[in-house]
Write a structure and sequence with these properties.
Shape: globular
Number of strands: 9
Helix content: 25-40%
Bound molecules: S-adenosylmethionine
Strand content: 15-25%
Distance between the termini: 40 Å
Length: 309
């Protein structure tokens, strides 16, 4: 798959966090083009093993091709990382990587409908086997539900206004293309010199909703903890604050030596329990200046590392 070009983000930092070694067993829940996976297999040669998955069939094929030189040392499946524990044995891995979000080929291929820079179908499915598309959300949800998505997943301050305009516009002509939707948002909120396109947050929100990215992340962290051995590391790269908050909350909750009943942490209601993990890096690690200069898409990356106890 020679056209699948994705620069793996924070490669050195990922390898340092996972510490691959011969005989070790690792999992990559977001294979993409297999860049991180190849680095893990190289660093764990000659006997390290890798389980890998991606829900995008194009990515899985690209990764298979990229990893051909490591034949006999990996098992790859097309699937959601939220389901990793269904096929990777509990307590079997020394490390898991989740490099969240979309890949460059997904963004750059107009036909996938992730980008408003080029015209394409309003699709945004990472897993093209699922039926729900962005067009379906935009054309069928009520204005309140759409506004909720734009606000909760995109932080879009004009969420209600945009949602109401979509509801009105689609009566004349349903939304089918990325440029059609971006055009409406741009008419409602003209750019006035800003660098970011006014539809950026709406597109991010729709993408997160179509792919249930927040739900998958929550379930993926739980599955990840299950498949790790004690001492195994969970390494997560997120690209926006919503994802990072979920990773942080998961780490905070699971590293506590107590749990509590109810929605607020009242000291009197605490029950002692053994923590399940500890932070290796309490603060998020960010790409260095050289990487930022070389790969502008890495600019919002944040890496967090936890270790199973
Ligand atoms: C940032 S790219 C990963 C790039 C990869 N680390 C590399 O070196 O090429 C994210 C990939 O994760 C996949 N992905 C996102 N969420 C997923 C999920 N819940 N389950 C499986 N794959 C997912 C996307 O399809 C995409 O290919």
């Amino acid at each position: 798959m020679p056209n699948y070009i994705h620069k793996p983000v924070m490669l050195g930092e990922v390898v340092a966090a996972l510490r691959p070694r011969p005989g070790g067993c690792y999992a990559d829940g977001t294979l993409g083009g297999g860049g991180h996976a190849a680095a893990i297999l190289t660093a764990s040669a000659p006997t390290g093993w890798l389980y890998g998955c991606d829900q995008d069939g194009v990515a899985v094929e690209a990764a298979r091709e990229r990893l051909a030189a490591f034949a006999g040392r990996f098992e790859i499946r097309r699937g959601n990382f939220a389901e990793l524990a269904d096929w990777v044995a509990a307590g079997s891995c020394d490390g898991l990587l989740l490099d969240l979000g979309v890949s460059s080929p997904q963004l750059d291929e107009a036909g996938r409908g992730f980008s408003f820079q080029q015209d394409g179908p309003l699709d945004m499915r990472m897993d093209t086997r699922q039926s729900l598309t962005a067009a379906e959300l935009v054309n069928t949800l009520g204005a309140d539900e759409l506004a909720k998505i734009f606000w909760e997943f995109g932080g879009e301050e004009q969420s209600r206004r945009f949602a109401r305009a979509i509801e009105t516009d689609r009566r004349q002509r349903p939304f089918t293309s990325t440029v059609q939707l971006a055009g409406l948002i741009e008419r409602l909120a003209p750019r006035r010199g800003q660098r970011t396109h006014p539809a950026t947050k709406v597109f991010q929100a729709l993408r997160l909703a179509v792919n249930d990215e927040i739900g998958a992340l929550r379930r993926g962290l739980v599955a990840g903890l299950k498949i790790l051995k004690p001492g195994g590391r969970l390494v997560v790269i997120s690209f926006h604050s919503l994802e990072d908050r979920i990773v942080k909350e998961f780490g905070r909750e699971r590293s506590r030596d107590y749990e509590f009943d109810g929605p607020v942490d009242v000291p009197e209601l605490r029950r002692a329990r053994a923590p399940e993990l500890k932070w290796v890096e309490r603060k998020a690690v960010k790409p260095g200046a050289a990487e930022l200069a070389d790969n502008p898409r890495s600019r919002s990356a944040q890496l967090r590392v936890m270790e199973k106890i």
